[in-house]
Amino acid sequence: MNSQPPAPIGVAVVGAGYWGPNLVRNFQGSSAFHLRWLCDLDVERAQRVLGDYSTVRVSADLDEVLADPDVHAVAIATPAGTHLPVAMAALRAGKHVLVEKPLAATYAEGLELVEEAGRRGLTLMCDHTYCYTPAVLRIRQLLADGELGELHFLDSVRINLGLVQRDIDVIWDLAPHDLSILDFVLPPSVRPIAVAAHGADGIGAGRACVAYLTLQLSNGAIAHIHVNWLSPVKVRTAIIGGSKRTLVWDDLNPSQRLSLYDRGVDVASPEELEDEQRRDILVSYRSGDMVAPALTEREALRTMVDEYARAITTGTPALTDGRSGLRVLEILQAASRSLAEGGTMIKLDERHMA
Amino acid sequence: MNSQPPAPIGVAVVGAGYWGPNLVRNFQGSSAFHLRWLCDLDVERAQRVLGDYSTVRVSADLDEVLADPDVHAVAIATPAGTHLPVAMAALRAGKHVLVEKPLAATYAEGLELVEEAGRRGLTLMCDHTYCYTPAVLRIRQLLADGELGELHFLDSVRINLGLVQRDIDVIWDLAPHDLSILDFVLPPSVRPIAVAAHGADGIGAGRACVAYLTLQLSNGAIAHIHVNWLSPVKVRTAIIGGSKRTLVWDDLNPSQRLSLYDRGVDVASPEELEDEQRRDILVSYRSGDMVAPALTEREALRTMVDEYARAITTGTPALTDGRSGLRVLEILQAASRSLAEGGTMIKLDERHMA
Amino acid sequence: MNSQPPAPIGVAVVGAGYWGPNLVRNFQGSSAFHLRWLCDLDVERAQRVLGDYSTVRVSADLDEVLADPDVHAVAIATPAGTHLPVAMAALRAGKHVLVEKPLAATYAEGLELVEEAGRRGLTLMCDHTYCYTPAVLRIRQLLADGELGELHFLDSVRINLGLVQRDIDVIWDLAPHDLSILDFVLPPSVRPIAVAAHGADGIGAGRACVAYLTLQLSNGAIAHIHVNWLSPVKVRTAIIGGSKRTLVWDDLNPSQRLSLYDRGVDVASPEELEDEQRRDILVSYRSGDMVAPALTEREALRTMVDEYARAITTGTPALTDGRSGLRVLEILQAASRSLAEGGTMIKLDERHMA
Amino acid sequence: MNSQPPAPIGVAVVGAGYWGPNLVRNFQGSSAFHLRWLCDLDVERAQRVLGDYSTVRVSADLDEVLADPDVHAVAIATPAGTHLPVAMAALRAGKHVLVEKPLAATYAEGLELVEEAGRRGLTLMCDHTYCYTPAVLRIRQLLADGELGELHFLDSVRINLGLVQRDIDVIWDLAPHDLSILDFVLPPSVRPIAVAAHGADGIGAGRACVAYLTLQLSNGAIAHIHVNWLSPVKVRTAIIGGSKRTLVWDDLNPSQRLSLYDRGVDVASPEELEDEQRRDILVSYRSGDMVAPALTEREALRTMVDEYARAITTGTPALTDGRSGLRVLEILQAASRSLAEGGTMIKLDERHMA
């Protein structure tokens, strides 16, 4: 176990592309960290991200950054294919590591990182940003507190006009969000055990642009994920059905992101009802009260950065540690195999889901 | 071929349960029909449906109704399991037949009806009500006119707090709507060729209360249907993605049921874009104009009743004739088989889909 | 006081135009009434409303209808200018009277009816339909129970593409809905005391097509009503702000018509807050929980018809009796005067608001 | 006329409270400006705004900042009561001036600034931020191009839980947004000529927390503004009705901020329609197509900052110059007088509205 770094923790961000600037901004805004470097092969790009008024240093040389003894932690926002070498170099230099999702390009690569960090007693954290939104943190709490009762189904839709990626399909691009959220909010006793995936290319992109994942959970429940790059409307909604209540999360409705419905259906079969009752029920919209809890708006990345600091300082695993990243990779790989096999249900390896 | 019945066409409604009253009201409102009987084993129920001010006769005896020479057509709104005997009796009595969806309890039973009607030159029509909504009629036209370009994907969600049926699962209860719509709007050159189904019970109902159907279409496109009895929110939305435009149908938004979006995504891969462009696109909601065409509100059942009269009078098949009912049954049966086999993709019988 | 009529109460509907058919349908559906006549100068129109299957009689002769001893009650859905003679004739024939809103064309005419009914001990009821919606009934209860605390403001918007009426302006066409609701839900201790109206014609219709009413209430609160025939979007929303909670009624959102918000603002002035707190509050959407109570869907007219039966049977005033109709007329007349005077605040006559 | 400053233009931001940080961020992001100072009486607050990584200087001394010859322009985000002395000092030091809305605490004070800037040939610009949103820029264009036809009415709602200000009422806090937008989008031939204001305190704040402004426009049209600090729901919607089309701006719906409706109502009176037509129209939601134009998302402040640079560089008035700020102040002052007089319609001074 490394000794604790002095506060604030010196940190370097690697990668000044799409996501890096968000990390830069949030590390700068955190009193727990001191941002020392922004590292990118394209130093001009890095300088543009920092702007004309910054005292943070830029470098194209990762070794230079890792050699700085004032750097105790790094945050990696480079393409997934580079996560293994970059993160491994950082760990070997004794730095704590935060990696953008997915943890690595494959389960095997991710495992190397988890084991290396374990051996060295360093924090390895995966930036599953959505898990740190006020809404998802609340969902996790509601499930943990039994407010929903036993989980029956989870239906997640994440669709919008998207950038058709050149190297990965829509599952690897978008589903890590849903899978990491699922991993985060499920009670410890419930685990995904198998996955099937269907998809279509459609526009001749050479990879799935629309995809559906169906997961069997260990308690008999079902989870379903719809990811789509080709939708003109943006939808980010999840419905989580439990035996007591059902939760609807509409991430694009800031005034009512979470709606908690009292149970709206009974097992009583319709044949036991009179016709008019039956008709009333069918035209009704719902039968129980709904509560929309107030959520304090807070940028998820700010909370994620705080958790990184907490994990480093206490030496305890982050809420979204390397192992959670591995579980997401296990499902992604099984989903890819299912997709290739035309939708076969693929069992997940229990040891990989621990 | 029977001779044309005199106008208005004498009609009898069989079944005074959930759906029958809607048929009664619409036949009464149509000048093409003269409603003569409401037939139900429970005559008090039938009388309640007609109310205290009606001149329409009630009967518990189907034979009595079918023996009435002024009855030229019947409309059957009894449970699916009774469709075969009731409809067959009507056909054998020389009556035109309209059947509530699904056409019959099985493909084989439905086929008997189609063949009997064919032999006798009688109209056999399936009450796929949604096909006659102004929205679906417009969708069909838009696809036929090539306004969407080539079809890429169709995603349909039909969820709400539902009545958990005692005899059928959520697929047989709700998916006939989506499947008949799909059958109705697809251009003739595109056909479903296989289906996979996943589902979950959850509440111990003894049958699937949540289910997902994935259909492979003959042109490589995908269709996906989510049906759910356990959702506290009611959603009836379909997204139909084409090569030129994408259509969103939100049936619960009467002021904007149809939204037609100019293409919002190009195949250009994000690596060709600068970071800031990429970021702009990812935070943008859409990139093309949207048109929401005006739709004249008209009750679908009124249009369906008109189409029944037209088919009877002209001796030509109804838009939703018995064969369309057979195609829906073929898919439902394959979906049930897939569900039982854990989600296997089941090929549809080409001859059944003709 | 007349003796109670035998059950069911024989009723005649006068007027087969826009609203009459709804009354016909609901009286037919009520076991408390027996619908005997539909009376209209145009008997063909009346017959079309009843359809080809009805045993209800039609007549163009009001006297014939009023002479029928089996008719104990009438419901009048003729233009407002005819309410006085038609309703007066009915009262003088000893019939209970229900009148479509507004009660009469002027306060003076309405008063004649109220006094005549009073002298004869007959029920005079105004068909303020909205008051009988499940939502408004609940709002009334919430205010009565003090769930909102003291009333601070009420803001009502009722706009849509409307028919430009030839004889009345948008205030007389639409505001009776809002004013009758206001009259219905206000606690007895709070009364409107003055009104100002602003409006615009715009399209050369010769009368106001857009109008705003501002009412001063006796407790210092404000009520504001926006009515508009020229809006392409339909909005029917009211916000009712109280000292404890605020209620939002969105009549076009059937899944969430009522939303009850915990108080979202404190008098604490922003100068006492730190900048970041202030910024957080300003970007927040709300700070308290929200509850959307379940409402049983029930057609308002059905409940209104029940209330008419109750009032007749018990001899007690209806919830929306003639006096409530008078109070609405007093405000409408004052609003017209204000409009003519360019928006002057016009005091209401206290004796007319009793 | 001053000579043009060298590019980039040296700028100082005065005020590090609520709005200042937004100006700091946008000046830093603009290549047309070089941010040199952030000036605030509380230098610690100013330093917090800049963060730990900035090279921008802070100062509590306005004179020091104005004495810097590299500062050619200032941006003032201090309370309205201080705008006169701060902006006057800047103008007298030869600096171009951007002032947060409202331009000054009174019309008279604003006029002093406009005249001083005029005498010195300096840019005086008012930060009417909303005018620079893509939506408002498009609305302005649509009105200028005659796409809406002649203006009939404008209805603006800006309500939310707000901070109850200690020194100003809700009209002075929120209505400057709506009034500056109105000023910005109105065609040059149409001007407000009178205003009436109604309001209520309710919560004992000592000033209006809910208010309604009604403006008469020179072409007979009406504009109405609802501002409210006490609404639990956030609404920022404007409806702009014209003789050809009607526009709805919903600023909180990022996927459809602007909706342009074909005319949905004709002057044809309902008496000319048959009953069924009339009923159809009344239950219809709209009768024409709707187009929702695509808008490129761009931060309004970025565009505002660009316009400030353009005005300075070219020596021509900014789109929201001092005179537009004066017109807003004239209306605010008249509204305050109307509020004090119980809602009297107050004529605006034509010379002040030029």
TrEMBL record, chains A, B, C, D:
Where would I find the GFO/IDH/MocA-like oxidoreductase domain in this sequence?
137-247
Q: Where is the Gfo/Idh/MocA-like oxidoreductase N-terminal domain?
A: 9-128
Pfam families linked: GFO_IDH_MocA (PF01408), GFO_IDH_MocA_C3 (PF22725)
One GO MF term, please?
nucleotide binding
User: Where is the chain membrane-spanning?
Assistant: none
Q: Which domain of life is it from?
A: Bacteria
Instruction: Quote the protein name from its UniProt record.
Output: Oxidoreductase
* Organism field: Actinoplanes utahensis
Q: What broad taxonomic lineage does this protein's source fall under?
A: Bacteria, Bacillati, Actinomycetota, Actinomycetes, Micromonosporales
